[in-house]
Design brief:
Length: about 350
């Protein structure tokens, strides 16, 4: 069997290759080869040398397996064939997942680090294992070990399912070990969404503060935005009192006509507080509420002020039901402005003692 020196760069190039009269190995880099036979069959091979011997793995026939997928399978195979490498398959795949998936879908560096740390901790027991050797029991057991913290367990399970699904999509795994696994099927306690809203006294206490953390938290409340969105605010995002958040949890831009009370808080302090540090300081203060509870409180107060629920949802950037999304394409900008103005007015009355907000 001989090796060919002319390597095409695309599937179209492979299709144009002339027939061969004997078996030929065509290198594509990274231990990936295309074995071309005289009868027209062309098979992708991963050839790696281990312990002085060649290890050969078939990755599928071309054109069923195209060049791009063959490269993905070769990458997975290289990870799988290196069990003694301290930079093991799971570790290497996880590092790539955090860079490619978490790094592009989580808005702030703090959120990326937090999610990555949760995965590192959950997968620590299998970090030195080949990716293909992962079993459902290994992964589900790691989540069940957190059964006393149902919310953390639910988030960890979601992250692990994203990781295993990503590995399948990348061709690193043939079967998703967590397919069909849910917290309920694992017998875990159900996720308990927070229902905490701030009392009038707690809002008054916040508005009496003048530190940088309070500055950001006040802006979060008056705009009903997420803390991570506020921490990424820039003056370039403003246009005639309308703040357009370019990157949101939903993946789409979100515009908010800010009330005067929120505009008075701009620009936000520089340097900006770090989200994790802000959350930790809030917890250590014994406040009993989190930064995200402000968003829930804002929504509650808008409803109490008579704002229609669909306008509150528009302010929060929650996606409406599919049927509404398809057939109702109106721009709710004016309604969002009215909703936030009603929130600011109610807050003013609350802080001055005119309204009482139940915790």
């Amino acid at each position: 069997m001989t090796a060919s020196k002319t390597t095409p760069k695309t599937d179209a190039g492979i299709a144009k290759l002339p027939p061969v009269t004997k078996q030929v190995l065509m290198p594509f880099g990274g231990s990936l080869y295309l074995r071309r036979g005289p009868r027209g069959r062309q098979t992708w091979l991963l050839r790696t040398r281990m312990g002085g011997a060649w290890q050969v793995r078939q990755l599928g026939d071309w054109p069923t397996v195209g060049l791009h997928l063959a490269r993905q399978r070769a990458e997975a195979g290289r990870l799988d064939l290196a069990p003694s490498d301290p930079d093991s398959a799971v570790q290497r795949a996880l590092a790539t997942f955090k860079r490619e998936y978490i790094g592009t879908r989580y808005r702030t560096e703090d959120a990326q680090k937090e999610s990555g740390a949760m995965l590192d901790k959950a997968l620590a027991g299998v970090a030195n294992r080949n990716l293909s050797a992962l079993r459902r029991l290994d992964l589900s057991s790691a989540v069940q070990a957190m059964s006393d913290r149902p919310n953390a367990a639910a988030k960890t399970l979601a992250l692990m399912k994203q990781f295993s699904g990503w590995a399948v999509a990348r061709g690193l795994l043939d079967v998703d070990p967590l397919a069909g696994v849910t917290a309920k099927r694992l017998g875990m306690l159900p996720y308990e969404p927070r229902e905490r809203v701030l009392s009038a006294d707690e809002l008054r206490a916040l508005w009496q503060r003048t530190d940088a953390d309070a500055h950001v938290l006040k802006f979060c409340f008056l705009s009903a935005c997420r803390v991570g969105e506020a921490l990424l605010w820039t003056k370039e995002q403003m246009d005639n009192g309308v703040w357009t958040i370019p990157q949101t949890k939903s993946g789409r831009p979100h515009s908010l006509p800010l009330p005067a009370a929120a505009l008075e808080l701009l620009p936000l302090p520089d340097p900006r507080p770090v989200y994790v540090s802000l959350a930790q300081r809030l917890k250590r203060s014994g406040a009993g509420w989190t930064a995200h509870d402000l968003r829930r409180t804002a929504a509650t107060m808008m409803r109490e002020a008579g704002v229609p629920v669909h306008d509150v949802e528009a302010v929060l950037n929650h996606a409406p039901p599919r049927l509404v999304r398809v057939y109702q394409r109106h721009d709710p900008l004016q309604a969002k402005g009215a909703a936030l103005a009603a929130l600011a007015e109610r807050l003013s009355g609350t802080v001055e003692g005119g309204h009482e907000q139940a915790a």
